[in-house]
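Quick one: structure for this chain?
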Amino acid sequence: MQHYQERDPQRVAALRDQVATYKRKLAWLNLRDNMLKDGATPAAIWRETAKLAALSLAGLPLAAYGNINNFIPYLIAKHLPKSFSTSARK
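Got it. Here's what it folds into:
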């Protein structure tokens, strides 16, 4: 590194800036360097995105069932105390 610093300090400074920017972006995205795959092509990224979208759509009915199934007890628990408190006051 010392050799390059003496020969071409501007290039070394530019490289330091690029590395700092890279690390800052990784930190902002909560990623580590080893999480990134080497040679990720746009086709591979789209394929992975499509796979995750299909998985999300496949889980959607189960998520909808869970929301509906938990919403009914929520409504009961929300309105039941109100009905008891108004009937007790009468």
